[in-house]
Amino acid sequence: MLNADGILVSAYQELPNDLLEKLHKVGTVTELLRFENNKLLFWEYHYFRITAALRRHRFKISINYTLDFFETEIKKLVEADKNLENKALITIQFIPFSEGISFLMSAESVQALKTQNRKADYSLDLFKETGIQAHSLSNLSSTNTTIYTIAKRYAFENGLSDCILLNTEKNLVETVQGTLYLFQPSKIITPHLESGCQDFALRAAFNDWLQKNEKWGTLVEQAVNPFELQKSTEVIVLSLTSGAQAVSQYKKTGYQMQIAPSLFNAFFEETS
């Protein structure tokens, strides 16, 4: 089931021809969201990220594109597809036209985020073939899609669960799958936005929560050298698809898996 500008259709063949043509020919803005228990998780963070991205892409934003408008359209899509069982990953794609923007929504059935199956064996390494340019445009998900596609293939070909991208300063950015957090005594380190990582809504919500709950450790957003990985006792990758995925191995360094599950559960209970 798809939602195209507020009209529900069951297949791509039912979309207007001009919309299909644009999907293949122009750059679009895409946002991934999670819908559970009849609500959009971290919705305000997502909405502000969407509007900021549309402005930075110089798209002409309709005055109808309010927070409530999109929430209504997403619920319409979820309620129309009985297979979703009120748990879904929602992809919204914004397509520019000369006179404005069209949107296309699709939904995928998933497990609830809190009960999402996570891998016990999750190994990663550095992706060194090319670096992310450390500037503000790198915070947009559309900027470095080719690099992420190649890095994902690199991980697969080398038997890795994931890999970490570096920027041109040789500092950590994030992994192919999500935002990187390194646990060290009394602090939690994550690359700052100036490193070139994507400004995911979940990242923003999690960082805000950590800053208010320092019993888990002081959050430090900074440029992160790869050597910090060997100094960490625990590492997680945070994403909407898997929640907090604990890393088991980086090169010859093994990690504990103790703090991440309870920390993420506490975050999820308080914010969802």
Supply database-style keywords.
single chain, 272 residues, alpha+beta, D-amino Acid Aminotransferase, Chain A, domain 1, D-amino Acid Aminotransferase, Chain A, domain 2, 2 domains, six-stranded antiparallel sheet, five-stranded mixed sheet, 6 helices, globular
Secondary-structure map:
Elements: E1 2-4, E2 7-9, H1 17-25, E3 29-36, E4 39-40, H2 43-56, H3 67-80, E5 87-97, E6 100-109, E7 123-132, H4 145-157, E8 162-167, E9 172-175, E10 179-184, E11 187-191, H5 201-212, E12 218-222, E13 234-239, E14 243-246, E15 249-250, E16 253-254, H6 259-271
Parallel strand pairs: 7-8, 7-15, 11-12
Antiparallel strand pairs: 1-2, 1-6, 3-4, 3-5, 5-6, 8-9, 10-11, 10-13, 13-14, 15-16
Describe this structure in words.
With 272 residues, this protein is of the alpha+beta class. It folds into two domains: 2-109, Aminotransferase class 4, branched-chain amino acid transferase, N-terminal domain (D-amino Acid Aminotransferase, Chain A, domain 1, 2-Layer Sandwich); 123-271, D-amino Acid Aminotransferase, Chain A, domain 2, CATH 3.20.10.10. It is 28% helix and 32% strand. The chain contains six helices and 16 strands. The chain has helices at residues 17-25, 43-56, 67-80, 145-157, 201-212, 259-271, and strands at residues 2-4, 7-9, 29-36, 39-40, 87-97, 100-109, 123-132, 162-167, 172-175, 179-184, 187-191, 218-222, 234-239, 243-246, 249-250, 253-254. Strands 2-1-6-5-3-4 form a six-stranded antiparallel β-sheet. It has a five-stranded mixed β-sheet with strand order 9-8-7-15-16, covered by helices on one side. The protein has a five-stranded mixed β-sheet with strand order 12-11-10-13-14, with helices on one face. β11 (187-191), α5 and β12 (218-222) form a beta-alpha-beta unit. α2 (43-56) crosses α5 (201-212). The mean pLDDT is 91.
